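Input (structure):
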C-alpha cells in the first residue's frame, strides 16, 4: 500500500490564522467598558500593558497607578482641576435638613427636642399598633426610650389613655 501525503495538511485548528489575542486593556478603546468594569475607565487611557500598571488621565495627562482596583483613579477624577464632570464623582451626602432631624449614617445632627411632638408620636404609635397602655410602664421600654432621648418623659398609662382620647375627639371634630 502506497501512502502519500497531500501537499496541504488539514488540521483541527480554527480556520482563522493563529494570532494571540490582544490583552483586554488594548482591545477596547478608553471610552468603552465591559460589564462589571468601572465607569472610571471612560476618563483614562491604559498605557503599555507590559510596563507598570498606569493609566493616563484624559483631562490633565497625569499618570495614575492602578493595581486591581480603580479607587485611586476615581479619587484623581474628584481632584482633577481639568475634569469638567468633577462634581459627578463626589459622593452624595443627604443633608440633615431634608430628614427633619434624623441622623444619616454616623453624621451627628443637632435637632431641637420637642416633648409634645414626641408624646403625640408615641400616642399615634400606640393607636396604630394597638399596644397595651401598660407597655409605657415597662422598665425595658423606658430604658430604651432613655437611650434614644434622655430628656423625653414617658407618660403614665393613664396620661397616655387621656391623650389618646383627646386625639380621638380632635379627629372627630375635623
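Output (sequence):
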Amino acid at each position: 500500500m502506497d501512502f502519500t501525503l497531500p501537499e496541504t495538511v488539514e488540521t483541527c485548528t480554527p480556520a482563522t490564522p493563529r494570532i494571540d489575542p490582544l490583552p483586554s486593556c488594548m482591545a477596547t478603546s478608553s471610552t468603552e467598558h465591559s460589564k462589571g468594569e468601572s465607569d472610571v475607565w471612560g476618563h483614562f487611557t491604559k498605557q503599555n500593558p507590559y510596563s507598570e500598571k498606569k493609566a493616563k488621565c484624559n483631562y490633565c495627562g497625569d499618570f495614575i497607578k492602578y493595581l486591581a482596583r480603580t479607587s485611586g483613579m476615581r479619587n484623581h477624577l474628584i481632584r482633577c482641576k481639568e475634569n469638567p464632570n468633577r462634581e459627578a464623582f463626589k459622593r452624595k451626602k443627604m443633608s440633615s435638613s431634608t430628614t427633619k432631624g434624623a441622623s444619616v449614617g454616623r453624621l451627628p445632627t443637632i435637632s431641637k427636642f420637642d416633648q409634645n411632638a414626641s408624646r403625640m408620636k408615641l400616642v399615634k404609635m400606640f393607636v396604630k399598633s394597638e399596644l397595651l397602655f401598660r407597655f409605657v410602664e415597662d422598665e425595658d421600654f423606658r430604658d430604651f426610650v432613655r437611650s434614644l432621648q434622655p430628656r423625653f418623659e414617658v407618660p403614665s398609662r393613664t396620661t397616655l389613655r387621656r391623650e389618646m382620647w383627646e386625639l380621638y375627639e380632635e379627629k372627630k371634630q375635623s
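Notes: The chain has five helices and three strands. The first strand starts at residue 44 and ends at 46.
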